[in-house]
Design a protein that fits this description.
By secondary structure, the protein is mainly β. The strands form 2 sheets. A 6-stranded antiparallel β-barrel has the order 8-9-10-13-12-11. A 6-stranded antiparallel β-barrel has the order 2-3-4-7-6-5. The radius of gyration is 16 Å and the shape is globular.
């Protein structure tokens, strides 16, 4: 899910809410296609058991940043009690057990100290420590991160992945989706007709072409960009426009990972 707060409600951002269907609720990258199996191996499905009855639903995406830690969005944290969450690594089809999955409980949740619940203030990032380590079964990998303070150039093409909504009507995918999405540099994204002051330099904007975007269910997932010889997670899906997610000049906004690495490593070390 892509997030919101009270003071932004008049602008109409998508917000994180507990889906009414507590059995299986998975939400897609708009304008994308089915990812090839066994690719984007650091992508996980963050799942939540809101009724404490063992019925988990897909809540958000996330990225494996070491064998014991997952990076996701702070607004994906509906409760600070870790017992309600599980991480599914090696996931592809949410509706089928394929033998590649690892179902791991969460032991500790670390929310960035600057997170206030207001998406416009940024700092929409959290780390989850796993109760057991992810192991290499051929279907998982640890995400590479960008260089500290690294910036992406305007129109640079990255890939967004997730199980978010496919369209305005709420269609949902079974398998992981992927779509190419172009970066919108800060000086453009912060213009009035784009996101204005809601776009900060601690964020990465991508999309806004009216075709491709993240949507509800993609929150916390990665913005994957091939830089310096490797695929790296440059962003964490944070927010987008309410209503139709793929709106002209309203790109998907990501937490910019390269400016949070000191905090990330202070947590995992």
């Amino acid at each position: 899910m892509i997030g919101l707060v009270a003071f932004l409600s008049c602008i109409g951002l998508i917000w994180a809410e507990t889906p009414f269907n507590h059995r299986v609720h998975n939400e897609r990258v708009i304008g994308g296609s089915n990812a090839k199996p066994n690719t984007w191996k650091w992508q996980i499905s963050l799942q939540y058991d809101s009724y404490n009855d063992g019925s988990f639903y897909h809540l958000c995406g996330g990225s494996i940043i070491d064998s014991l830690h997952i990076m996701t969005a702070a607004h994906c944290i509906l409760s600070t009690d870790p017992s309600g969450y599980r991480v599914v690594a090696g996931e592809y089809n949410l509706y089928e057990y394929e033998g590649s999955e690892q179902f791991i409980r969460v032991s500790t949740i670390y929310i960035h100290p600057g997170w206030t619940g207001d998406l416009g203030n940024g700092n929409d990032i959290a780390i989850m420590r796993l109760a057991d380590p992810v192991y290499d079964n051929g279907y998982v990998a640890i995400a590479e991160l960008p260089y500290p303070e690294e910036e992406l150039p305007h129109t640079f093409t990255c890939q967004i992945t997730g199980w978010g909504l496919l369209d305005f009507y709420g269609s949902t995918p079974e398998v992981l989706q992927v779509a190419p999405i172009n970066v919108v540099e800060h000086k453009v994204c912060s213009q009035h007709e784009w996101w204005g002051s809601l776009a900060r330099d601690t964020m990465v904007c991508a999309g806004g072409d009216g075709v491709i975007s993240g949507c509800q269910g993609d929150s916390g997932g990665p913005l994957n960009c091939f830089t310096n010889g490797a695929w790296r997670v440059h962003g964490v899906v944070s927010y987008g426009p309410a209503g139709m997610c793929n709106q002209w000049k309203k790109p998907t906004v990501f937490t910019r990972v390269s400016v949070f690495e000191d905090w990330i490593f202070s947590v995992i070390r």
